[in-house]
Amino acid sequence: MNMINIKEYMQQLGVEARAASRLMARADTNARNQALLAIAAGIRRDKEALLAANRKDMDAARAAGMDAAMLDRLALSEKSIATMAEGLEQIATLADPIGEITDLKYRPSGIQIGKMRVPLGVIGIIYEARPNVTVDAAGLCIKSGNACVLRGGSEAIHCNQALAALVKEGLRTAGLPEAAVQVVETTDRAAVGELITMKEYVDVIVPRGGKGLIERISSEARIPVIKHLDGNCHVYVDDDADEAKALRILENAKTQRLGTCNTAESLLVARSVASAMLPKLAAMLTSKGIEIRGCAETQKLVPQAKAATEEDYYTEYLAAIISCKVVDGLDEAIEHINKYSSQHTEAIVTENYTKARRFLREVDSSSVMVNASTRFADGFEYGLGAEIGISTDKIHARGPVGLEGLTSQKYVVLGDGHVRG
Amino acid sequence: MNMINIKEYMQQLGVEARAASRLMARADTNARNQALLAIAAGIRRDKEALLAANRKDMDAARAAGMDAAMLDRLALSEKSIATMAEGLEQIATLADPIGEITDLKYRPSGIQIGKMRVPLGVIGIIYEARPNVTVDAAGLCIKSGNACVLRGGSEAIHCNQALAALVKEGLRTAGLPEAAVQVVETTDRAAVGELITMKEYVDVIVPRGGKGLIERISSEARIPVIKHLDGNCHVYVDDDADEAKALRILENAKTQRLGTCNTAESLLVARSVASAMLPKLAAMLTSKGIEIRGCAETQKLVPQAKAATEEDYYTEYLAAIISCKVVDGLDEAIEHINKYSSQHTEAIVTENYTKARRFLREVDSSSVMVNASTRFADGFEYGLGAEIGISTDKIHARGPVGLEGLTSQKYVVLGDGHVRG
């Protein structure tokens, strides 16, 4: 397609998505759940065809010299296909967020006023290689009464088209418009440029992928973006920390998985307990193969620690490295976190009630934790059922974004012929 | 100031606002309320000085040939000064939104998870002539634990500086940072350009004023904008409308005040009741001096109606004009509204339960009403206590934006050494 055709093509998707979003917003709970279950059934039934489509993508990616980590994200297996289907079945069991009316109260004027939860409308989702995002995102949008336009990585095009066909079949089975979920069929990058600027047809953009993709989309979008940039998460071991808890939490937060956004990337230790606890914490990290980059005080207590630069404290390593700093106490810890963190997830280890309360209130991150591992920052762990991403923005949705993040609230006013005085 | 100096000046405001926002976020409820009351007392005390500052602005505005409507908005009076002070006192009586923890529940993993309401951080507010916005906006930001940078119209500069001094005095009295409320001292437009792009220092922009200002700011901002563009509000008189209620509601919605954003600008009437009701509705409008622009069917029933163009149905007149269309019934009414309205406020007049429910669910506007005047769409009428504006956006805040719209929610996780399995 040339540029003009791409513009026309995307506008057409937009028109159809907007029309479908109206039908989705009024579709009943049962129809939306039926669609989810039908898609899940289709995925299980067409397992072999999906694996075949994925092999085409994998072959092309290997030929193009894609690295092992990307190939890993692109790959489907019998297990990952079953997981996609289960994900949809789980979303079907969640309570319907749409139409919920809350806070309905009478006002002195006699009107009754409340809020009704409604879909956002049309969600544009832009992501990289992982084909499971196609199914997860479609499932969350269908459940929340939205339409969506999905633009997956060009590497996964065959697989995404096969999944899109199953999604459309499921929508049809449930009597819902097929255009409620549309997969962009061109791999041309100009399609993304259109998607993120079609204000009339798209209400919000959710980019998922590497920081480069997300920064580019945020800066070019003319539509609100729900995004997650970095996960530079901190564990602060307070003066009043329980040593066993500190060891257990830090081990889990840093070493359970190195490459997730809720992995701890920086350790802060209060000076009064540093000489007692830091060597043990460091020994645990070293035994797990984690490189420590610390301040001068850290280096005195931990001979194996390298020197940390200013840049280290800003860094989300996603690797077997952690930065470390000895701090005065709670005040310096909070100040350090609010300066260097990416406002994702931070944890304090303390037995002190007042300091726990202050940490919760004063740390300006999307998740703040007391005596728990940062690894818990996740839609499933929080009971949201599924997540479309983790937002490090401050407006609309912060932290794991589940169904509610794909909705908004409008005011409903009930009267009996009331007029304003 | 030259461009470089303006950039430096605005960056400095930003740095100070960010630092102040940290202190405001942790300031206790009492200190924030004390500041509001101290500012109110200062305003009452310095009434004469404020009137004098306003006279300077008025003289300059008259000399510059400002029109009567703008002069009216710029003018202060003893009464409007008292109203400003009362507004602050009312905000002080509202419940503190900050720190509220909701939905705190245990998860199977053993962690307890909930949401805590927190300030957004730094709010940039850009507005035109009205000096009362300086006080209202400062009051809402102080109460909600935010810092703000206010950029009022250059016409009101003397008055805004006088008010800013009183705000700073009030903050000081309560032991809060003066930089929590900063008024941009330069009238150079480049300052706005800086304000709406300083991502590091400003979390959200609230533009208030004419459509031109708001469109320009929305398209140039690199920071999320909470905005209100148009108020093209509809009243739909259904087949099952009560005639007396229809007359009363339309009269109030259209004629109580012509220039407000929640004034009705378009009337839809179901065909089955058009011949019975439309002439009476039209006679009422005509008797109030309202010009009617209608479809062909309207013109048959209402001889005094002019022909409406397609453009009329999109128009927010803010004047003694209303557009009118006869529609098939509920389906066409909803379709028409979702196409032409600005998603602000729409009302149905009906006695039919099922159609009332459908209108509430399917009309995609920030306020949807049954048997009540669109004029109720207002923060005070809704019980929010005050509003910083009415949002026609879909994400974050829809409809009247009060204290809650200046806050966000972060997740809090409480554990006892819990780690993820």
Protein model, in words:
Chains A, B: Pfam families: Aldedh. Chains A, B: It is found in: Cytoplasm. Chains A, B: Pathway: Amino-acid biosynthesis; L-proline biosynthesis; L-glutamate 5-semialdehyde from L-glutamate: step 2/2. Chains A, B: This is Gamma-glutamyl phosphate reductase. 2 copies of one chain form a homodimer. By secondary structure, chain A is α/β, with parallel strands linked by helices. Chain A folds into 2 domains: 3-226 and 400-413, Aldehyde Dehydrogenase, Chain A, domain 1 (3-Layer(aba) Sandwich), CATH 3.40.605; 233-376, Aldehyde Dehydrogenase, Chain A, domain 2 (3-Layer(aba) Sandwich), CATH 3.40.309.10. Chain A has helices at 3-26, 29-45, 47-63, 68-74, 78-93, 132-143, 157-173, 190-195, 211-220, 243-255, 271-287, 296-301, 310-314, 330-340, 353-362; strands at residues 101-106, 112-119, 122-127, 147-151, 181-183, 204-208, 233-237, 264-270, 291-294, 306-307, 321-327, 345-349, 367-372, 389-391, 399-401, 407-418. In chain A, the strands form 4 sheets. A 7-stranded parallel sheet of chain A has the order 10-9-11-8-7-12-13. The first copy, chain A, is globular and about 65 Å long. The relative contact order of chain A is 0.13. Chains A and B meet through helix 1, strand 2, helix 10, helix 15 and strand 13 of A and helix 1, strand 2, helix 10, helix 15 and strand 13 of B. Strand 16 (407-418) of chain A pairs parallel with strand 13 of chain B.
